[in-house]
Amino acid sequence: MNKSRLEAFSDGVLAIIITIMVLELKVPEGSSFFNLEKLFPKFLAYILSFIYVGIYWNNHHHMLQTVKKVTGAILWSNLHLLFWLSLIPFVTAWAGDNNFSNAPMMLYGIVLLCNALVYTVLQYHIIHAHGKESLLAKAVGNDSKGKISLLLYTLGILLAYSLPFISGIIYTIVALLWLIPDKRIEKIVAEY
Fold first, then answer.
1. 169 in Cβ contact with 100 (< 8 Å)
2. CA–CA gap between residue 75 and residue 122 (Å, rounded)
3. pLDDT (tens digit, 0 to 9) for every residue of the chain, 192 residues total?
């Protein structure tokens, strides 16, 4: 399989994920702006999750620019990532419907952590298929940003039971870390 099919399939799944998330935002009854107040938690959850899906789409796109050959391990790792990304609409709706209470925030964090772990596995398989001197290996380096994210997700999950609001802040901080485009891959690809 060539990488363009992998990219197209992944883009399609991510587009569906975003569509499912926005469909969870039901139009409120009533025509006053005060009727929108009930949607505020759901809307906040939607914004954060939309940003996360956008971050994954952006970084996935950049990472696949370094791929020259697609192996079975890359295909399965990519599919595994799409599975965890597909759970984002569910945890987004649950967290938003329940005003970011402890169990939904814990599960939200678990899904974010699993996405990050599987993304790291996909990165590993791409590097393994292309060698330690590959573009991706050079761009990622020791991936301190990825490791910090994993630690913050774990902290957010642990705090979710007693301090779900703090968990939400931690998940937002991780998103902000990645919202600034990661130039490592762009820079390496431009050089070669």
1. no
2. 9
3. 788 999 999 999 999 999 999 998 888 888 888 888 888 999 999 999 999 999 999 999 989 989 999 999 999 999 999 999 999 999 999 999 999 999 999 999 999 999 999 999 999 999 999 988 888 888 888 888 999 999 999 999 999 999 999 999 999 999 999 987 667 777 776 776
Q: The tokens of 180 are what?
A: 């600034």
Dig out the tokens for 16 from the structure. Answer: 């569906």
